[in-house]
Amino acid sequence: MSDDAVSPEEVRHVAELARVDLEDDEVDQFARQFADILEYFETLDEVPEVDREADLANVMRPDEERDSLDTEEALRNAPETEDGYFKGPNVS
């Protein structure tokens, strides 16, 4: 793909939509970079498709019902508690 695949006018238009002020040298630089990016996409179009489906397996364990900790046991290692709840620092 040639460097003029993206015109400076298109770069200025996109910059205007994004509310970005660009100098003339920046417009030229972005036009070249956009052209490079589009060339990469064209390269990706050349990658052959794979005709097989991926082997998927369920990696999740089944749910198990278990007794939970009682309040006293859950709060045992908490640095601070208040009224049966964990207490953390005030957030301002």
TrEMBL record:
Catalysis: reaction(s): L-aspartyl-tRNA(Asn) + L-glutamine + ATP + H2O = L-asparaginyl-tRNA(Asn) + L-glutamate + ADP + phosphate + 2 H(+); L-glutamyl-tRNA(Gln) + L-glutamine + ATP + H2O = L-glutaminyl-tRNA(Gln) + L-glutamate + ADP + phosphate + H(+)
E.C. code: 6.3.5.-
One GO process term, biological-process aspect: translation
Alphabetical keyword list: ATP-binding, Ligase, Nucleotide-binding, Protein biosynthesis, Transferase
Domain of life assignment: Archaea
Enzyme class of the recorded protein, top EC level: ligase
Region (Disordered): 60-92
GO molecular function, one term: ATP binding
Entry function: Allows the formation of correctly charged Asn-tRNA(Asn) or Gln-tRNA(Gln) through the transamidation of misacylated Asp-tRNA(Asn) or Glu-tRNA(Gln) in organisms which lack either or both of asparaginyl-tRNA or glutaminyl-tRNA synthetases. The reaction takes place in the presence of glutamine and ATP through an activated phospho-Asp-tRNA(Asn) or phospho-Glu-tRNA(Gln).
Family: Belongs to the GatC family.
Subunit structure: Heterotrimer of A, B and C subunits.
Name of protein: Aspartyl/glutamyl-tRNA(Asn/Gln) amidotransferase subunit C
Species name: Halopiger xanaduensis (strain DSM 18323 / JCM 14033 / SH-6)
